[in-house]
Amino acid sequence: MRVSVSEWLKSGTPWVWLNAGAVAISLIMVIGLLGLIAVRGLEHFWPAQVLQAKTVAPDNSTYVVAGEVVESEMVSAVQLRSSGVQLADDIDFAERYLLKVGNRDITGSDFTWVLKRDLKEPAYPEEIIVIERREWGNFYGYLDSVSKDGQIITGSDQVWQAFQDVIDRALGIHDDIYDVEKSEIGGINSRFERLRLRERGYEIRNNGTAEDFADIAARRAELDAEYEALQVRLTELYNAFNRDSISVRTANGKIIEINLSKVVRAYQPNAMGLIDKIGFYFSKLWEFVADDPREANTEGGIFPAIYGTVMMVIIMSIFVTPFGVVAAVYLREYAKQGVLTRTIRIAVNNLAGVPSIVYGVFGLGFFIYFLGGHIDNLFFVEAKPAPTFGTPGLLWASLTLALLTVPVVIVATEEGLSRIPRSIREGSLALGATKWETLWRVILPMSSPAMMTGLILAVARAAGEVAPLMLVGVVKLAPSLPLDGNYPYLHLDQKFMHLGFHIYDVGFQSPNVEAARPLVYATALLLVAVIAVLNLTSVTIRNHLREKYKALEV
Amino acid sequence: MMEPPSAPGKVDFSDPKFAIRRRARRLTDHGARWAIGMGGVSVIIAIMLIFLYLLTEVMPLFSGASMHREAYYAVPAEDGDGATALLAMEEQAEVGLRVTEKGNAVFFNTRTGDIIKQESVRIPEGRTVTSFASGTPTSGLFAFGLSDGSVVVLRHDYKITYPDDKRLITPLLKYPFGEDPLLVSQTGKSLANLTIRDGDTSLMLAGSTADGKLEVMRFKKEENFITEEIMLKPEPVELPSVSGEITSILIDIRQEWMFVGSGKQQLNVYNLRDPGGGLHSQIDLTDGTSVSTIDYLLGGISLLVGEDNGQVSQWFLVRDEANQWQLQKIRSFEKTADQVIQIETEQRRKGFAVAGNDGAVSIYNATAQRTVLTQQVTDSKIKRVAMSPRANALLVLDDKQQLGFWRVENEHPEISWSVLWGKVWYESYEEPDYVWQSSASSNDFEPKLSLMPLTFGTLKAAFYAMLLAAPLAICGAIFTAYFMAPTMRRKVKPVVELMEALPTVILGFLAGLWLAPFVEHNLPGIFSLLVLTPVAIVLMSFVWVQLPARIRLAVPDGWEAALLIPVIIVTAWFCLGMSETIEAAFFNGDMRTWLNLEMGIDFDQRNALIVGLAMGFAVIPTIFSIAEDAIFSVPKHLSNGSLALGATPWQTLMRVVLLTASPGIFSAVMIGFGRAVGETMIVLMATGNTPIMDWNIFEGMRTLAANIATEMPESEVGSTHFRVLFLAAFVLFMFTFVVNTVAEIVRQRLRIRYGSL
Questions:
Q1: Do A17 and B580 touch (CB under 8 A)?
Q2: Are A123 and A184 contained in the same domain?
Q3: CB count, 10 Å around CB of B186?
Q4: Given an 8 Å threshold on Cβ–Cβ distance, is A513 in contact with B513?
């Protein structure tokens, strides 16, 4: 032994190593967590092989299961025996699979646990198809025939091609229906509502002339006509939409009919090559970021949540940047060190340390019920008793988060200001510039990257904050986007969807948590990626800035 | 394009043009100074605004009630229609009702006393009214006992219509069980002490005869399927009589218990469900004074007993150790009068008003054991009082045959210091307890608004989080600031910043959906990991110093943390891999069941351990950054001096660096604790949110913050529940305010001290 135990103990080495261990554990936790989210989030879009096998039901009848293996785990025999499974005495553990078998309309549940032991004759038949549907989740099984415009197509060669054709057609019609329902009918509804408010306004203020009312009636008739026309068009579209259907058979032999209007996508995962799978992967990924959610948010995309988050963050930035920067400038450039500055610093620290839910409560009470209530009484009387700004919405959520993120901007800006060498200020002052001119022409431009850092950090914080938003404006499903083609285009009073809340809602409030889980991981990954990128950007900017100022100081 | 430098001409600074410009510049400069100063101060304004706003929302909880008289008029009455037996008001407190002992019902305008409608109760010929009973105020029922032992049951009801957009309330007198009197006395004798209790399935009527016999009749309700009419099927209930003069009879809401007051102070408790129909127990309600009135509190569970000396107390049945129901005195209320004339209960809350013999009315809340208000309402004696259903108006009938209509402002009587922070004996509970249960479906529910379980849950969550976070973060900070190689430090710090930036919703979601099942599945592995990781680290450090210098020197100083990463991963892999084997060997293959059966420890999947791990993760970077900063900024000459005197780096760290930086580390821990206390999403997602009080690491909790997040959206604006949630937010605010302020002051002091060193 080179070093004796007592010597080793006396040198304090084990303590140093224990401290090092703490760093190592923290690092492993962060990286492990990011890795976990990345793996779980990314694997969701990959088309999994569909396993088909014979298995035994509890009543000893055999049946066929087909599904994707989602998870496998070792279960102790004790647990299995206590749940009534017959196992040989020498077995300690048994492996079991969680299979996603879909067909919720037939079996009642998307998932099933099977013991590996019970799976007989496992196979990956190429003909097996997976159909993503608009309701009842995925279908797993075989395609028997396609009914295309009344004509039945069978035969293994043409049937798949025919199926793809009718899907493309149905998706095209679906897009048309979506356009009509969302933009055109949505636009008409919003104009109807504005007419109603105008009329109500006249009634309340008692200042409407006969012409005004006639005008309203005329416009309303016009809108009614437009609406009728759209309704006719919509009926036609729906008829076309419902034309085709397919006949499919589950692995267990049950035949069901699926209308093409219910089909989003169909594929044969076991027959796909690597290239096909990669293509499929990216199309799913695109669907995820660009589409609306389906089936109570457990399928489809998260576009409205991304959109809502971005809108909120932008509006918040408009409020938070000037406020934070001015406060930082005051602290660093104007204030004399004294009781006031110390108090401000304590206030900043408190703003940073007050629990976010308290901001939510404050926002709900002060912004929404107090400010919003007064705004409604002053400007939106005609909409009453329905509240306009007296209810949670985008503006109030942004304001609440602006208040919450102010300290982040202040601290970052202050850091940037403090690193600008004195000599630069003195140079400017010596040339006769006033303090304000020095600030405006020299200091602020130089510290703008620091402000940027602060803003980025604030945005990252706001994007991930959920607790206050639950009280001040976030909903699980917003009927329309906060910025759209209907007057007044930017709907500050509207409720919106948010990535962080989406995670909470889908992961914990969803009726089908198991099915929604991959989507939650994917959403979490997106959120973490955004926040990581924002943070690393701010770190880079800051480091860059430090180097620059160091160079200046020489 | 720059202009070519012109020859330095003469500049006349006294030129008015320059003067104006100078003035403008000076004004701008001053303006900017002011504007920026305002910007700086607005941070203080913001925090003050939050404080004051929360305070204004909370204050009404603790402000008392008030009442003022809006009208005073002669009792609306017919000549000689008898004494007032019942006073009541409808929902809006616009229409009042006065029912006399002779069977006259007068509906009147409560503001003016004008009679709206007058009706005599239809009593079959040849019989006279001998007694009167009123049902619960909510039901609107009242009954007249007739001379032949039968009873007429009536209900006052109100129809609201809006002719010409104006509210019109039309009072009605109904006979819900038909106009024919119901026969109660089997012997046909007239009844005294009549009582009525209506339920979903049956109606009960009871009274006592002049010879001290109890006559009780249960009418089963049977609905005729064709006409949907309700038929009453009488079923006599035989009960033994009591000694002494019967003074009152009460039946509880489930028609299980009957209470008969006899003599001065005795209460006889009958169990109506007991097939023997026996007397359950006999209790003395007072210490010698006589009972003047007994009535039910809202909900029909608690009895309010008013005594001749002005004392009012609350009683209900409690199951004792022998599993026997015993009527127990739960609490006494503050004495405000010398004698209780009437107890009038509220219809929506567990409150009541007591009319005293000195002309004063006192309003109480039973749960809060609080005297909300005592008000002199007349200079003569009070004969009757009536509370409106919304408890916002009071009718007072005095000895001068005058009626006073009083407005009552009493928004939050159910809150007192003891309700929020003390043990309260709630109805149907076996003992006083801390309970948070803010709402229920039924109307006569008693809100249980103790903040104790929530505060306890908050501290429990924060405690387990700090248990993980404080050692890891402080040790990590020590190593990073003092031992770590600068290159590695530059890589570690952004990772920690990223860790701080991770949204808590993601940590909460992983904790709830991934970590909780994982930990449940690998419980032995997790615990062996907690023990084995430090062992593995120490072992590695010993092995490392034994290695030949060639290998040791290949890794520069300050990279120990990197070396340990694979060691810890292998240890974790080993522990988790062994988990099932350990479980099979020591815990019968299932540690969870084992804990439950062998140790008697309850196990929830989402428990304090999960919260501790997830929230610990969230708090580590906060503590780490501040502590690292404090240690790193310890002036170098201090440690250099110590090292030069021959101390080892470890000794220098312990005796010099940590000692100097300890206030900074303290403030780091404080701020971390503040963050753990206020964290919402992690607790919301990683626990079951049950408000229990138990330190067990395998059970969940509900924290103040999570409680606000779950209940605030459903709370009615301005209600007591709403304000209590604001109070919870205010408590959180104040707590973190104190913690953060102290931490910041400590840090400011430290900065000054470092500066002077």
A1: no
A2: no
A3: 14
A4: yes
Distance (Å) of CA A404 to CA A26, B142, B508: 27, 58, 20
Domain B452-754 has CATH 1.10.3720.10: yes
What total number of domains does chain A contain?
4
Per the DSSP assignment, residues forming a β-bridge with A87 are none
**All residues at 6 or more sequence positions from B236 whose CB lies less than 8 Å from its CB, including other chains:** B186, B216, B217, B218
Radius of gyration (C-alpha) of chain B in whole angstroms: 38
Taking the alpha carbons at both ends of chain B, their separation in whole angstroms is: 53
Query: Is there a single domain that holds both residue A98 and residue A179?
Result: no
Q: Is residue A181 part of a domain?
A: yes
Q: What is the pTM of this model?
A: 0.90
Q: Are residue A208 and residue A121 in the same domain, yes or no?
A: no
Q: Is residue B298 within 8 Å of residue B346, measured between CB atoms?
A: yes
Cβ distance B590 to A76 less than 8 Å, yes or no, reads: yes
- Cross-chain Cβ contact B648/A436 below 8 Å: no
Place of tokens 């995670």: A503
Walk along chain B (757 residues) in steps of 10 and give the mean pLDDT of each run.
57 82 91 91 91 94 89 83 87 90 89 88 85 88 89 91 87 87 85 88 88 87 78 85 85 88 86 78 84 87 88 89 86 87 89 89 90 89 90 90 91 88 89 87 80 94 94 94 90 90 92 91 89 93 88 85 92 90 80 82 88 94 93 90 91 90 92 92 89 88 93 88 94 93 89 80
Residue A122 belongs to domain spanning:
50-129
Determine contact: B597 vs chain A, CB below 8 A. Answer: no
Q: Do residue A381 and residue A461 come from a single domain? A: yes
Q: How far is A153 from chain B (nearest CA, A)?
A: 45
d(CA B606, CA B508): 11
Among candidate residues B738, B673, B730, B685, the one with its CA nearest the CA of residue B704: B730
What are the counts of helices (DSSP H) followed by strands (DSSP E) for chain B?
Answer: 17, 31
Euclidean distance between CA atoms A289 and B317, whole angstroms: 61
Three-class DSSP labels, B248-306: EEEECCCCCEEEEEECCCEEEEEECCCCCCCEEEEEECCCCCCEEEEEECCCCCCEEEE
Cβ neighbours around B489 below 10 Å, total: 18
Backbone angles phi, psi at B581, to 5 degrees: -65, -45
Q: Are residues A517 and A386 in the same domain?
A: yes
Whole-angstrom Cα distance, residue B99 to residue B105?
4
Q: Are residues A235 and A86 in the same domain?
A: no
For residue B220, list its beta bridge partners. Answer: B202, B233
The pLDDT assigned to B1 comes to 45
Q: Is B212 exposed, middle or buried (0-12, 13-18, 19+ CB in 10 A)?
A: middle
Amino acid at B187: T
Q: Could you give the CA distance from residue A78 to residue A95 in angstroms, rounded to a whole number? A: 13
Residue B583 sits at the chain A interface (C-beta within 8 Å): yes
The full set of domain ranges for chain B reads 452-754
pLDDT tens digits, residue range A436-469?
Answer: 999 999 999 888 888 998 999 999 999 989 999 9
Q: At residue B49, what are phi and psi to the nearest 5 degrees?
A: -60, -45
- Span A258-282, pLDDT tens digits: 998 889 889 999 988 899 999 999 9
> Do the Cβ atoms of B372 and B352 come closer than 8 Å?
no
> Do both A123 and A178 map to the same domain?
no
Token pair 């026996």 is at which residue?
B278
Distance from CA of B464 to the nearest CA of A (A): 17
Is B318 strand, coil or helix? strand
Convert the pLDDT of each residue in A152-211 to its tens digit: 888 777 888 888 889 999 999 999 998 888 888 888 888 888 888 888 888 888 888 888
Note whether A330 and A425 are same-domain residues. Answer: yes
B208 touches chain A (CB under 8 A): no
Residue A403 falls within a domain, yes or no?
Answer: yes
> Which strands, in side-by-side order, build the sheet including B279-284?
B246-251, B257-262, B266-271, B279-284
